[in-house]
Design brief:
Layout (H helix, E strand, L loop, with lengths): L1 H9 L3 H12 L3 H19 L14 E6 L6 H14 L4 E7 L12 H4 L1 H4 L4 E7 L11 H10 L4 E5 L16 E6 L4 H6 L2 H6 L2 E4 L7 H17 L10 E4 L8 H17 L2 H28 L1 H15 L5 H19 L1
Parallel strand pairs: 1-4, 1-5, 2-3, 2-4, 5-6, 6-7
Helix pairs in contact: 1-2, 1-3, 2-3, 2-7, 3-7, 13-14
GO molecular function: GTP binding; GTPase activity
Protein name: Methylmalonic aciduria type A
Family: Belongs to the SIMIBI class G3E GTPase family. ArgK/MeaB subfamily.
């Protein structure tokens, strides 16, 4: 099954890509094993193929992260940008990370319904993905999904992350460039913007610069220019830019993309995008190790029984959470040794 899915992904079959992503996102143990085989097969076959798109830095794709607060118009912007890019001959994948309920694990929004036109574009692939409570709204398997999309021939990957403030800095571990999309705002609203996401932004885009909001948008852009000028640069070779647009009126999209292309050329030729991806791969390996270890521990009946017995001791303060965790881990490792 995995070989057939891998072949379908590499042939650009959207159904195969969608099924592959579903497999990668699954938390069933049997699916996890199949997902590993699938990813290994895709990577092995991809190495032997001649890529359709290669930029001046030798990269076959570009990964753009788009973060911002609720009300910034991210969905409208992404749909407008996606249509602009497919019209230029690009294949665009949108990984639109849904806000998920931390209690139910279910998604509140469905991005396909918010990006109907782009979803129906034959050169675009829109995939909502629940966060499952992962910090920052970037799903734990986004890195694997990006690799699958690139193997499917998508040369522009847009990763939308929910607007949760400072935790959104984790998006920088997934993409080549971070865009902060903001609505027109007054000085008080700008002061309330979390510093972390502003510091990692490579470009700030002020959306909704139309009608009565045109003047406030201009003031917001100036405020961000001043604020970013006072901050230490994320990279000495790139000065973050600020741009005003109206996604609704499709104005300024070409100018924003020109800045993205400038960043890609500048940082790519300095080998900084490749270096960043190498560092990201290492981080994702450790993230995956943490996730897999947690799943393995939670699947152990002995561990669950021990944890349940510890609850009362924790509540009454007879044992610290740290000591309880150490006891649970010791029990898990012992059970693994005995199982061999």
């Amino acid at each position: 099954m995995t070989r057939r899915l891998a072949d379908g992904v590499l042939q650009g079959n959207r159904t195969a890509l969608s099924r592959s992503i579903t497999l990668v996102e699954s938390t069933l143990k049997s699916d996890e094993e199949q997902a590993e085989l699938l990813l290994d097969s895709v990577l092995a076959q991809r190495r032997s193929l001649q890529p359709a798109h290669v930029d001046s830095a030798g990269l076959t794709s570009f990964r753009l992260g788009i973060a911002g607060p609720p009300g910034a118009g991210k969905s409208t912007f992404i749909e407008t940008l996606g249509q602009f890019l497919t019209a230029q001959g690009h294949k665009v994948a949108v990984l639109a990370i849904d806000p998920s309920s931390s209690r139910s694990g279910g998604s509140i929004l469905g991005d396909k319904t918010r990006m109907e036109k782009l979803s129906n574009d034959p050169n675009a692939f829109v995939r909502p993905s629940p966060t499952r409570g992962t910090l920052g709204g970037v799903a734990q398997h986004t890195n694997d999904i990006v690799l699958l999309c690139e193997a499917g021939g998508y040369d522009i990957i847009l990763v939308e992350s929910v607007g949760l403030g400072q935790s959104e800095i984790v998006i920088d571990d997934t993409v080549d460039m971070v865009m902060l999309l903001v609505p027109p705002a007054g000085g008080d609203e700008l002061q309330g913007q979390k510093k972390g996401i502003v510091e990692i932004a490579d470009i700030v885009v002020v959306n909704k610069a139309d009608g009565e909001l045109a003047a406030p948008a201009k003031h917001t852009a100036v405020d961000y220019m001043h604020a970013m000028h006072l901050m230490r640069r994320k990279d000495p070779d790139w000065e973050p830019k600020v741009k005003m647009i109206s996604a609704l009126e499709k104005k300024g999209i070409d100018k924003v993309w020109a800045i993205v292309e400038e960043y890609r050329k500048t940082m790519g030729e300095l080998d900084k995008i490749a270096q960043k991806r190498n560092a990201q791969s290492s981080k994702w390996m450790w993230n995956q190790l943490n996730e897999q270890l947690m799943r393995s521990v939670s699947r152990s009946a002995a561990v669950r029984h021990k944890a349940d017995k510890m609850k009362e001791d924790l509540v009454h303060g007879f044992i610290s959470p740290r000591s309880a965790a150490a006891d649970v881990l010791e029990l898990f490792l012992k059970s693994q040794q005995e199982a061999k």
